[in-house]
Amino acid sequence: MATLQLNNIVKDFGGTQVIKGVDLEVKDREFVVFVGPSGCGKSTLMRMIAGLESTTSGEIAIDGERINEVGPADRGLAMVFQSYALYPHMSVEDNMGFSLRLAKVPKAERREKVLSAARILQLEPLLDRKPRALSGGQRQRVAIGRAIVRNPSIFLFDEPLSNLDAALRVQMRIELARLHEELDATMIYVTHDQIEAMTMADKIVVLQDGLVEQIGSPMALYHHPCNRFVAGFIGSPKMNFLDVEVREASSEGINVALPGGDCRVPVDGRGVSAGDTLTLGIRPEHLKLDDEGPLTGKIVVIERLGGVTSLYLEHGDSEWILVADGDVAHRVHDQVRFSFDPTCGHLFKGDGEALDHLHRHPLVDIDRKQNRVSSAPGDQ
Amino acid sequence: MIRPHFPTRFLQWGTPMRERTSGRTVGGFRNLFLQGPAVTLLLLWMLVPLGMTLWFSFQRYNLINPMISGFAGWDNYTYLLTDPALWTAMGNTLLLVGWVLAISVIGGTLLAVLFQQEFFGRGIARLLVIAPFFVMPTVGALVWKNMLMHPVNGVFAWLSNLLGLPVIDWFSSMPLTSIIIIVSWQWMPFALLILLTAIQSLDDDQVEAARMDGAGPLAIFWFITLPHLKRAISVVIMIEMIFLLTIFAEIFVTTSGGPGLASTNLAYFIYIRALLDFDVGGASAGGVIAIILANIVAIFLIRTVAKNLET
């Protein structure tokens, strides 16, 4: 039950700026995911919030109170580490109760709190085991349990699922989301995996080179990326980009030239004039094979996933990725034509900034909670 | 050689040949043949001196009077075991080993934590602190005897004078303590070296998790660092004990076991018997007693260490 504010946070490691002024507002009970490529500063930012790294300048506040000078233990946060960081010589129970033991909580009360956390995570049969006798998923749950026992105002997760195998990751993802609802806590989650970000976040913060590129709901980032970096980073396979020339631009839309004829993208074209070069971005899943389509390419690679098939196409200098359904019978070297729905297209200016769409996507403001059956009573 | 496709163990009931799942045989004549030379050499190396010691310990064998010879029965042992000097020497041995172990392990652990911190010139400081271990025991003991603990020329005497305190004649007033100090000085760097490498393998995340859990530096040391070092500490104790039971050079160079028997340990006691009293028989009996003592210690020690290493 806490809010978090970051005001112009800067981190300087001996002359190298790793975080270059980040502003962020995390609301109560929100699930915020920091996502970005390796080295973008997302883990550093989380460690600064945790108090494990000092803040060079700027202010970190929890519930409006500045905590820059408060030690990591007194911020009321709990962190789950990527390596789990369980204490190997302590049993699961001692691991989970370590913070209480340091806080000199009486033994009976300690046990009670550990037991109630263990109940939430189904860890009760494992309480006497040492961490090395646990599987990866169980260790993960113990690490989360250790955080729950502290009853923190904000949970911090530093890539907690990256050491798990794929099947377990899916399971833990759902479990974490369930936990978020059950605990009603504010959670901040760092990951480089965009599926984790898209499925769990109320709000995604995309970071690159120590700067926030965009903050928004998963659907907002997918449908209305604010620049080329976010457009390329969110979505898999990556968005296709093609340099195009503007034929005509107005506040009603922009006509751009494509090899097989013009196409009209419904974006705000003010400030753009005919003859300018823009970058057209289309997601692979919005391209479709079409014998009358305006675009053409030769298949270089086919990746068949069963349900869907990814086609890697080549046309002159440009490369395209197209996601078609699983029954595509084409072979490598086939020449195919394809088209797209121009309302799904994005246009980016030379500096990478996106031109605003005329219509907001209807799902942009959808709440994550509306995506699943809630376990909490009173909700629909 | 063509191997049958079904496991050979079904063919050879009752034979010692076992087969691993990988298909390799375990044991058997070929292995014995390959291990033979090494094992034989080790056995000879161990058994011949042991046998000779045992043999001499039951002989009347004194270099001063070669005319007295022949089988002595248990005489050497009864003579030795009723000699209060043996018990003094044994007590000194245990005191020496115990104190040096305590000082070097506790000091080594604390120094390891200290030298793990970042500070200017850490590399040089680490090198210097490990240096005593590379000094020959005789040289080290002589340096301590003549330059540090000497009641007239020593640095300690000079310091005492400077502070107006009475000068201590280390080797005559507290001989065993002096030797414990010298040997600790030599072995602390060894403990430090092993424990420092162990401390470096401590996962940073664990320390950070403990910090988030509210652990201060002392709590981190007690609950995280020390348990992590448990294994390394038991290895240090085991190795040091093997060497400390046989300390000789330091005593020989400084106090010669004196005054009286105040700094005589078992090794030095046997030396006195054999090469000062020329009583080879008695010295051999002392040697056998030393072996028994070492084995008693070793059984307890290796058991605990092995248990520690298992987990």
From TrEMBL, chain A:
Q: Which residues form the ABC transporter domain?
A: 4-234
Question: From which domain of life does this come?
Answer: Bacteria
Q: Name one GO molecular function term.
A: ATP binding
Classification via SMART domains: AAA
SUPFAM superfamilies named in the record = MOP-like, P-loop containing nucleoside triphosphate hydrolases
Annotated InterPro entries: AAA+_ATPase, ABC_transporter-like_ATP-bd, ABC_transporter-like_CS, ABC_transpr_MalK-like, ABC_transpr_MalK/UgpC-like, Mo/tungstate-bd_C_term_dom, NA-bd_OB-fold, OB_MalK-like
Any single Pfam family the record assigns to this protein: ABC_tran
UniProt keywords, alphabetically: ATP-binding, Cell inner membrane, Cell membrane, Membrane, Nucleotide-binding, Sugar transport, Transport
The answer to whether the entry has keyword Transport is yes
Protein name as annotated: ABC transporter ATP-binding protein
